Amino acid sequence: MTFGRLLAPAVRAAIAATLAGSGYIHARLYVDEYRFIRVVGPLFLLQASVSFAVAALLLIGMPPLLKLAAAGVALGALGGFAASRTVGVFGFTEHGLRPAPQALLGILTETGTLLLLAAWQACTAGRRTAGYAACAPMPSAATWFPGRRRRRPGTGR
Question: Which residues contact 75 (CB under 8 A, 6 or more apart)?
Fold first, then answer.
């Protein structure tokens, strides 16, 4: 088994875990505080549901559309967070990193999702082109120098 075959399921599981973590945070916030807020409460529940669904699907496989959905969920949550601290979301505004610690944990899980997706994309795109060194498995000595080594003219080496 190569390094890439071990790394792919681990990264996929890590992306699913960060998405599920974000979903759990939003579900707890919905149950504890936000379910009574018009429009915003159901949006928290929707974000939690979609996060859990995409995380479960990522454990099965990782087609491009699902990677895009994972990035969209994370970006949507971060965008909603930023909007709620600046212009407000449907008349709802908050300040700073409240509620603590959920706000900070949400930012970390969603940013983690995006960073893991970016790393995955960089590794797979690099393998398709020239073989990105940080992601590709190390070649063995037998494949590193295929065939006979060339000798320098006049040196005998």
Answer: 110, 114
